[in-house]
Amino acid sequence: MPLPTWHILFVRPYEELIQFIASLSPRDVLDFKPSETARQRVWELIERQKSAPLPGDEKSELDHYLEIEHLMRLAKARARQLLAHAQ
């Protein structure tokens, strides 16, 4: 489902990626969950960060994950919209 024309003027750079991810298969996007290994790694980094600053490479790793998680949350919200409009 393309974005409304008026929306193009106000699109944030990541909106195209979110729309792309969500439109591939909205149901698959909603069902996606990171692996247990990935979740454990992120949890470990978050817990360690609470007690001391992370080394630069691990801070970067955590920051990247959090950015991706944010984009996936937005893609899941868009996927819900796409499924709702398809019904």
Short account of what is shown:
This protein has five helices and no strands.
Shape: elongated
Broad structural category: mainly alpha
Number of helices: 5
Distance between the termini: 13 Å
Q: In angstroms, what is the radius of gyration?
A: 16 Å
Task: Note the run of SSEs as H and E.
Answer: HHHHH
What is the total tally of β strands?
0
Residues in helices, as a percent range: over 70%
Low-confidence stretches: none
User: Beta fraction of the residues?
Assistant: under 5%
Major sheet = none
What number is the mean pLDDT? 84
Topology:
Elements: H1 5-8, H2 15-24, H3 26-31, H4 36-51, H5 56-86
Helix pairs in contact: 2-5, 4-5
Notes on the protein architecture:
Helices cover 77% and strands 0% of the residues. The chain has five helices and no strands. The model has no long low-confidence stretch (mean pLDDT 84). With 87 residues, it is mostly helical. Helix 2 (15-24) packs across helix 5 and helix 4 crosses helix 5. The protein has a domain at 37-87.
Characteristics of this structure?
mainly alpha, 77% helix, 5 helices, single chain, 87 residues, 0% strand
